[in-house]
């Protein structure tokens, strides 16, 4: 049996490590995503910080005629606008970054402490911006879907048939659809099962409280999910 009291003959690694240089990275932040939604949306400049959505009042019929014969009287008509249109106020995301002067003076090599703190705070602000576009109770997409645009899926997971049904409700050419990642995975499995190649998509996880536009759970048991 070796003698545990044998005198040390050479410098050990733990002590030698104190003189070694350590390669360091900038702070990593797992919440950063590609943020495709912000890039794909059509942004409008707001001179006064307010966006007013003016619509024609669809409750008032517009009287027109077709196939007028001789001097048949033409109906008088007009288009009624909504008198109280919906307005969206420009929202701002704010935060105060605290950095002690002592920290920034003594510990800013090789990476600037203030710069790294600002970078990560700005990234979080951008993530919050995209989250608000989906979940905000006032202007978020999930809270502004017209009831007639809701669609129930035929079976448990979303299928190409459900996507066809969704496309019939689109009266303008869509640039993209939003979906929960599990919905995308379930849809891809159904396409594989049918031998249909799934469309191109960018899998980006967002902590959204509901599913956007084309949405369904990946389990077959629940057939009451809604597509939005």
Mean pLDDT across every amino acid position: 82
Q: What is the N-to-C succession of helices and strands?
A: HHEEHHEHHE
The main pleated sheet reads as:
2 strands, antiparallel
Shape descriptor reads elongated
Low-confidence stretches: 204-228
What is the strand tally?
A: 4
Strand order of the largest sheet: 1-2
Could you estimate the helical fraction of the residues in percent? 25-40%
The termini sit apart by: 73 Å
State the secondary-structure class: mainly alpha
Number of helices: 6
What is the alpha-carbon Rg in Å?
A: 29 Å
Strand % is 5-15%
Structural account:
This protein has helices at residues 13-16, 36-40, 101-106, 113-135, 160-167, 181-194, and strands at residues 50-53, 86-89, 151-152, 226-227. It is mainly alpha-helical. The longest helix is centred in the middle third of the chain and has 23 residues, at 113-135. The protein is elongated, with a radius of gyration of 29 Å. The N and C termini lie far apart (73 Å).
Helices and strands in order:
Blueprint: H1 13-16, H2 36-40, E1 50-53, E2 86-89, H3 101-106, H4 113-135, E3 151-152, H5 160-167, H6 181-194, E4 226-227
Antiparallel strand pairs: 1-2, 3-4
Give a short overview:
This protein has 228 residues and is mainly alpha-helical. It has helices at 13-16, 36-40, 101-106, 113-135, 160-167, 181-194, and strands spanning 50-53, 86-89, 151-152, 226-227.
